[in-house]
Amino acid sequence: MNLYSLLRSLHSLSPSLSSNPPSSFTAGKLSKAADVYAFGVLLWEMLTGKRPWAGLLQMQVIFAVTIRRRRLAFPPGAREAHPRFVSLAEDCMAPEAERRPSFEEVIRRLGEVEGAPGYVGPPPATTTTTTTEAVAATVEEVA
Q1: Dmax over Cα atoms in the chain, in whole Å?
Q2: Could you give the count of Cα atoms lying within 13 Å of 121 in the half-sphere of its Cβ?
Q3: Using one digit for the tens of pLDDT, what is the confidence trace for 19-48?
Q4: What is the DSSP string of 79-97?
Q5: Distance between CA atoms of residues 22 and 62, nearest Å
């Protein structure tokens, strides 16, 4: 892929390139697997409290994920503090779409985290909807 092709592909991309998978830049493909990638980036943001690719320009982000094959890295201690969330986020952000889990798998794994010993969960809410139910409802709306 040459620079001209990369620039041309920018017209079909969302304003936030930081959550786009490599395939969206190289082939202009957006799919459910691309949404799973974006979900992995969202998990990364929630676990780190940082903006993905902060300080980089859009072209630098594209170059980093397509040419250099860089991935968002978790800071030291994140894996020990939240091993299942980090593992899920990394799987969701796999560079190859076929290696990413389906949203059904993501929901299953989130359910396992909710039931794990030591899981604190979100603060009490006015509804009894679990995180897994909320994600499942969102997936159904999108599908």
Answers
A1: 52
A2: 14
A3: 767 666 656 667 888 889 989 999 999 999
A4: HHHSHHHHHHHHHHT-SSG
A5: 8
